[in-house]
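[step 3/7] fold_predict: job queued, chain A
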Amino acid sequence: FHTDADGVVHTLVDGEDVTTALREPAIGELASSVATIPALRAQLVAKQQEYGRQGGVIMEGRDIQTVVFPNADLKIFLTASAAERARRRCDELQARGESIAYQTVLDEVETRDRRDAEREASPLRAADDAILVDTDGRTVDQVVEVLVELIRTWRAQRAALTLPTQKER
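[step 4/7] structure written:
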C-alpha cells in the first residue's frame, strides 16, 4: 500500500498500481469466489490483522467486523439494497465509458450477496454490536458526513469515559 501526500491510498502489486483495477466487476466476482476457500481466507485474514494490529486504521470488507477485527472499537455496517448498489455500479461503469445492462449488474450483485452470505468461511453479516447505516438514496458525500459524525460521537463518548490520571487531578 502507498499513501499519497493528499491521503489517497494506492494498492500496488509488484510495483504496479492496481487500485482502479480492483474495482472491476470481474475482480469483485473473483474475490467473492476465492473467499469461499477456507485455507486461503485464513491466510488473508491473518494478513489483514497484521496490517491493522497497531490500530488507527479504517477497513472495509464483508467480514472485517465479524471475523478480521471482531474486537474493533467502532463497527459500522454500511448497507444498501441490491437495486441501489447495481444502479451505483452501472453509473460507475458508464462514467468510465463502459456499457452494461442494469439487469446484468443486478443479477451479479444478488448472486455475490447470496454466495457471500451462505459461504461457510467468513459469511457476510453485520456484527451484533455494529451500527447499521442504510445508504440507499444517499450520495457519497452524505454517507461520509454520517460516518464522520459517528466517529466524532464515538470519540467524544470515549473521551468522556477516560478517567483523569493522577497528574491531571
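[step 5/7] annotate
The helical segments are 25-34, 38-52, 64-68, 82-95, 102-118, 140-161.
The chain is about 50% helix and 10% strand.
exit 0
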